[in-house]
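Take a protein:
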Amino acid sequence: MKLALVGTGNMGQAIERLALQQGDEIVARFNEEHPLPVEADVSVLNGADVVMDFTLPHVVRAHIDAYCRWRVPAVIGTTGWYDQLDEVRQQVEASGATLLYAPNFSLGVALLKHVLQQLLPLLERLPDYDVYIHEVHHTRKADSPSGTALMLARLIVDGLSRKTRIETETQHGRIAPEALHVTSTRAGQVFGRHTIGICGPFDELTLEHNAYSRDGFAAGALQAARWLVGRRGFFSLDDMLNEWLHATTNRN
């Protein structure tokens, strides 16, 4: 598989290292010093099968415009643009382009999300249990809360009737019972830790994903890129995982 890396920071470097180990080829690289020329034509990608975009929120929207115009499959790991999700979906579908996005490409996070979705109907029947989310990342992370924390929070708000809104600000008084509190810490070199706490009157259940390195995210992103080749449309990582789950169910 021929890849174009847009963003050669820590995640881009992890993807390149793992891709080369797997026999893939990096045919183009772009970064802050050598930005993606969004006004150029697709030849700047040197025949890439898939673009891997792990950049910053303030540039990714222009990148997506270019990918749609070029109709090159793109895996988007950049977060901070999800307020434009519906608009981008329409653009991708109207242009016949191919895009897969995820706030987190860790397959462990995907498992955490699946477990949470199974728990929410049970929690709906247990009103004495409250829920919170806390996430920790390194000090260089650009957005807060993380896209993953917000994704998990939206699942809870959508699936638990007693939680109707997400509260991300520090609370200096009592928090409203309908608010889901999502908090963040930025410290050191932490790759990413997401904790979902489920607090009852007599006990607490904690669901936690702790990333040991960026290689797990890189592996998931490369799997997504392979899955994306030959497809058209707007996808999330869930679409790939649901296809796997459906295939496993059919075999059983």
In short: The mean pLDDT is 94. The chain is about 40% helix and 25% strand. The longest helix spans residues 107-124. The helical segments are 10-21, 57-70, 85-95, 107-124, 147-159, 215-228, 237-251.
